[in-house]
Write a structure and sequence with these properties.
Number of strands: 15
CATH topology of the largest domain: Rossmann fold
Shape: elongated
Distance between the termini: 40 Å
Structural class: alpha/beta
Number of helices: 7
Number of domains: 2
CATH architecture of the largest domain: 3-Layer(aba) Sandwich
Largest sheet: 5 strands, parallel
Helix content: 25-40%
Strand order of the largest sheet: 2-1-3-4-5
CATH superfamily of the largest domain: Response regulator
Oligomer: single chain
Length: about 260
């Protein structure tokens, strides 16, 4: 696989190049550019599989670069990088595969790399089951990954101290209503939002998140086991941080087949 990195910060370009070589050695960075026009030229010349694209750059911004790729025969996976989370919606409108906030967290970058690997595996599987030369088969797969039929939340805008963060839903283990806020517990820390749980549950994929209590929503994959105490009350135990969450009587039916 090949990649192009485009960012006006030399240190970030160096960091991405070095970190990718460590965590994703199968990918070869074929160009590293500091402005939008150079990035667009490199992408058209090199035809990379992946582009790590800053949004605010001299010349052309990253959104404009992405728009300039729509006529290519081979459109790369675009991972936008920016310090400004307000660009998230616009980025995904331009078919972003992922979105990284500066400063780029290594664990988050590794997760992006895992998503790329999963995508490539899925493409290869699709090719195995269809004509390997079928462009339409691959286009259908890309459409399913980048534009799922149900528009469930992919990001949660939350606060942590004085910072406003864009938290990937994939990183959330559980959410809990506490006083006037909802706490968002992830593998990387705790965040706060004001959106009520009754509104959040409508926006989350019901196959991935269950409301187990009027004050608690949990990611199904984070559940390690379900256990009753001596009074008969049901609890879920998560696979991280020894967390135990109560299950309401109304929600116990969710676990009948577990």
């Amino acid at each position: 696989m090949t990649a192009v990195i485009a960012d006006d910060e030399p240190l970030l370009r160096h960091y991405l190049n070095r970190t990718l070589s460590e965590v994703f050695p199968q990918i070869d960075v074929v160009a590293s550019d500091s402005d939008g026009k150079s990035a667009l030229a490199s992408i058209k010349k090199e035809k990379p599989d992946v582009v790590f694209l800053d949004i605010r750059m001299p010349g052309l911004d990253g959104i404009s670069v992405a728009r300039g790729l729509k006529d290519l025969d081979k459109i790369p996976l675009i991972i936008f990088i920016t310090a400004y989370d307000e660009y998230a919606i616009q980025a995904f409108e331009e078919h972003a595969f992922d979105y990284l906030l500066k400063p780029v967290n290594e664990k988050r970058l590794i997760k992006t790399c895992e998503r790329i690997k999963s995508y490539i595996y899925a493409v290869n599987s699709e090719q195995d089951r269809t004509d390997p030369t079928s462009v339409k088969a691959i286009e259908r797969l890309v459409a399913r990954i980048q534009h799922p039929t149900n528009n469930y939340l992919r990001w949660i805008k939350a606060s942590k101290g004085e910072d406003i963060c864009l938290v990937p839903v994939d990183d959330v283990n559980y959410l809990k209503a506490e006083d006037k806020y909802v706490s968002v517990y992830t593998r990387y820390g705790e965040y706060l939002i004001r959106t009520p749980l009754k509104e959040l549950i409508k926006q989350l994929d019901p196959d991935l998140f269950w409301q187990i209590h009027r004050a608690t929503i949990v990611r199904v994959e984070a559940i390690e086991r379900v256990k009753r105490d001596f009074t008969g009350k049901l609890y879920v135990h998560l696979s991280t941080d020894n967390v135990k969450l109560a299950v309401s009587r109304n929600a116990q039916g969710l676990f009948k087949q577990m």
